[in-house]
Structure formats: C-alpha cells, structure tokens
Amino acid sequence: MAQGSLRPQKTAMLVAQRIVADINRRGNTVGDRLPPEKVMLDTYEVGRGTLRESLRFLELQGVLSLKPGPGGGPVVQQPDASSLATTLTLLLQFEHAPFRTINEARSSLEPMIAHLAAERLSAEQLAGLKSSLDTMRDHLDDQNVFLAENKRFHELIARGSGNPMFRYLIDALLQILDNSAIGHLEVRRSAVHETHTRIYQALADRSPEAAATAMAEHINEYIRQAENKNPGALAAPIVWG
User: Which domain covers residue 29, as residue numbers?
Assistant: First the structure.
C-alpha cells in the first residue's frame, strides 16, 4: 500500500499509543496509578473527550482499569488474551468460518509448540505440568476440574515454548473453544490423562520429536472424537457471544 493511501489515525488512538509508551518509559507495573486527568490533559494537549476515549480504548484492551470516584483514575493492568480472542472471533465470524478452523490451527501449531517447549521449559514450568497432571488424575470425576486442568496443561506448554506469540494464540484459541459445544465435549477423561502423561514424559525427557508426535496424536484424537460424537459442532459457524 502506498504511503499516501494510508488513513490518518484518530487523535484518540495516537494519544493511547503515547500513554502506553509513557507507561513503558516510566517502568510502570500492574497496580500503578497513572497521573490525574488534569495532568494528562496538559501532557497530551487534547480535550477531555479525546483523553477519555483513549483511556476507554486501553481499558477494553486490558491495559488499564478505570477506578471511579475520589482517588480513582486509570490503573495499570496486565493485558491477557481476552481481547485477542474477541478480535479473532469477530474476524472468523465475518468469514463465516466453522469451529473446525480452530482445531486445524491447533493441530498445526501445538506440535511445534511442544517441540520448542521440550528444549526451553524451565524446571518450574515442568513442575507446573506435573501438578496439572496430578490434579486431573485426582478429579477425573469432576468435569469442571477436568476442563480447567486440560486448558491449563496446554497453556503451560505454550508458555514453556518461550515464545509469547504462541502463548497468547493458544490462550485465545482455547477461549474461543470454551464458548462452543466442542469445548465441553464429553471424552474419556482417563484417556486424556494418559495422553497428557505421555506428552509430559517427552517434555521431561527433553525430547522435542517425541513431544511433537505425542501432541499431534493428542490433538488429532480430540478432533476424531469431536467428529464422531458431535460432527455438527465442528461445522457450526464461529459466533461472538
């Protein structure tokens, strides 16, 4: 795209970018309060409406929380994958994409992520995976615990890959599945625990190929079960909400 055809950004978006840059420059961390509104109005030389639009945008992105009342104001937060999940959901909905899209993405991404994790996982992260395995084993009769630990296991491996992009992508994809029939598919939980154990062992052995293979088998088996038990769920369109 030619430079001249680029649409100018709204002033509120430019101010939001400056606010984030200043957060980084000052070294603000979660829980820190930003300067009062009057100070920010003088700093960014904009009107109250523009500043508030900037702050609302950053709140939606999970960068800030806006505390009302005396002593309130913008407080720095840690963004998570929720905004990414919402954006992906909307993009896929307007593409009329089915939930099969999510599983195809996972079957491509997660074996590679497991391959990297086998090389990069810290001892603490490996211990977290073992804790997830033990919790799942001890609560196989509890669907809620099972689903939570299944999600946690995959998120921990994505985090262990050492690549933040994979961490947020997998978190977002799993959030999208949480709102679908596929995300609550009834499976043989003991079999899932056994598969997680094989993946964990490959990671503990620092065997990238074995970890990638075990993860690929796990995701592909999950897709096969979804196709057999609820084929309509995979074909259902992704929708927001």
Answer: 3-76
Q: Return the residue matching tokens 């964990």.
A: 200
pLDDT the model gives residue 187: 74
Identify whether residues 111 and 145 lie together within a single domain: yes
- With beta carbons less than 8 A apart as the criterion, state whether 149 and 135 touch: yes
User: Has residue 211 been placed in a domain?
Assistant: yes
List pLDDT tens digits, range 90-120.
Answer: 999 999 999 999 999 999 999 999 999 999 9
Average pLDDT in the chain: 91
Q: What is the model's pTM?
A: 0.84
Cα torsion angle, 142, 130, 124, 84, sign: negative
Residues 56 and 91 in one domain: no
Q: Which residue type sits at 99?
A: F
Indicate the residue among 53, 76, 99 that finishes a domain: 76
CA–CA gap between residue 139 and residue 135 (Å, rounded): 6
Distance of CA 171 to the CA centre of its chain: 3
Q: Are residues 174 and 131 in the same domain?
A: yes
Cα–Cα distance, 217 to 44 (Å, whole number): 53
What mean pLDDT is predicted for residues 121-138? Answer: 97
Q: Is residue 23 part of a domain?
A: yes
CB 91 within 8 A of CB 232: no
- List the beta bridge partners of residue 67: 73
